[in-house]
Design a protein that fits this description.
By secondary structure, the chain is α+β, with helices and mostly antiparallel strands. It has helices at residues 2-17, 34-42, 86-95, 139-148, and strands at 21-22, 31-32, 58-60, 63-68, 71-76, 80-85, 110-111, 118-122, 125-130, 133-138, 163-165, 168-173, 176-181, 187-189. A 4-stranded antiparallel sheet has the order 3-4-5-6. It has a 4-stranded antiparallel sheet with strand order 7-8-9-10. A 4-stranded antiparallel sheet has the order 11-12-13-14, covered by helices on one side. Strand 4 (63-68) and strand 5 form a beta hairpin. Helix 1 (2-17) runs antiparallel to helix 2 (34-42).
Amino acid sequence: MHGKRAKALLSLAALLVGSSVACGSEKAECTTVGAIDARYVEIGGSAGPLGECTRAESDLDGGRAQEFRNGSMYWTPQTGAWEVYGQIGDKYAEMGGPTSALRWPTSGELATPNNLARFNRFETGNIYSSPAGTYAIHGAIFDAWGREGFEASRFGFPTSDEFAVPDGRQSDFQGGWIKFITGTGQIVTS
């Protein structure tokens, strides 16, 4: 209990005092501060999954972002500070990061309950990296998949990102597909 309390106090001090951790070879240009620093330290700092920072924290679409050797950290007052890296980070960047349909991350990288895949949560959906590939699921299709039981459902893991079909949007899964009909808001499944 004492270790957890000390860690919490250090995180709080980082937020309140603005302590920073220098990282990378450009120490004056690359420090972590505030909530991003607190999360960065929590996940292991430069020895953690992100590695050393490569760019200073900057404003981005109503929040803050900072790049690291192996991924990025994102922060807003509503979502907190979260890391996105690896194949999930690559997909998120490809989609446009916080300006994408997923918006801001709301978790760090997590294991699925069956331990067969990894995922990050975002404001409107998730990105999954599984044996089926790395795909984003969001919006009404994500909600419908969730009602079915996510990857534990008959659908399994996603095998495509959402794509346009003549009457709406669709995502494919190991065990079928889920379609959102734009004109009616109806969900149709295979």
